[in-house]
Amino acid sequence: MTQKKKILMMCDHPLATSGVATQARYLINGLVATGRYTFRCFGGAMHHDNMDVIKVNEDFIIKPTIGFGDKNSLRLFLAQEKPDAILLFTDPRFFTWVWEIEDEVHQVCPIAYNHLWDNPPVPTFNKVLYDSTDLINCINYPTYEMVSGMFPEKTNYVPHAIPPEVFYRMKDEEIRSWKLQLLGQNRADHFVVTYVSRNARRKMPSDVILSFKMFLDRLEAKTGKRNASLLMHTDPLDVEGPNLHQVIETFGVIDNVIFSKERLGFAEMNTIYNISDVVVNRSCNEGFGLSVLEAKMTETPCVAIKTGGLTRQIEDHETGEQYGIALEPNVRSLVGNQAIPFIYEDFVSHESVTDALEEVFGWGEEKRREVGRRSRNHAMKHYNIENLISTWDKTLTTLTEQWHENKPKRWEMIEL
What we know:
Distance between the termini: 41 Å
Radius of gyration: 23 Å
Strand order of the largest sheet: 3-4-2-1-5-6-7-8
Number of strands: 16
Largest sheet: 8 strands, mixed
Strand content: 15-25%
Structural class: alpha/beta
Order of helices and strands: EHEEEHEHHEHEHEHEHEHEHEHEHEEEHH
């Protein structure tokens, strides 16, 4: 029997609810199911309630870490476990300490990276990190275009994917029942706009509220009613974003905005998408935007700005067909800091978002359902979980086999 490849994955804790965590879990479970892999994970977070090692099964073991680990813990793991590869998965700034000791890592195994970059220009300042990485699988197409231009021999396009049984369209009677339970009788006939993102500056939550308020005003002018609700699955008091309670009070939409701030499992999130008429994402830069893919899997149309990984989700790159409404950026601003010298942020006007919400409302239920069905078909074709697993299987197999056969040691101990 062929020995399983041992992979050390360093990422968000794979049993958590973040986008990185859920995608890590899908990938691990899929590769373990092939019978060819065994995973050990450094499960990152700022704080864990319990630091005990978690054994999901024989081939999926998680060690909780503060942050994503440190040099000494990695050195100890390399010495004791001798993995076949390290797989990094989150923002590269969290792993600079790994690349700083890449000469030590490369005495044992190669480094693979599940990589995402939000926007152009080409991040040439990351080249030193890419130089030290042996496999770069890119989650969105802009990242693939940028990185493959520098390193075509080790770069692949492998987008996120979702198992079809996790997010799906519920039966109509179930949706109506859940809408009543979650939103109440007074919102039974409301048009539901949903926002699923962190309350953070680049996610533009206050701007979503403002555009929704403008939509409400137009709706009232036309119908005499304000029969629409904004469901925001986010923490209104997140330290990374504005106080959203104050925002909805200032704009007079307290009665039309609902906050869902508890961490929810897949079933609960599936229900939220199903009771929604449209999901909106107007982030000024967005590496992928999992809320759009999750919504598409539930046959819910989206309004999204064409930036980063959202572009190919909201609009077919071959036919131009849209799965809701794709918003062209009105302004592109070049920003940066000392760690990330330059990157574009894409902005869309409040009026553009308001117009889009008004258009989706005007479609009526029948057209929204039709757009939703086409959305899921597109997601199943281009963001397919089987393709995700098979591509990672193929590229990891090639990486580890070539490494053991061809990669020379960078240094070795000799007796004098």
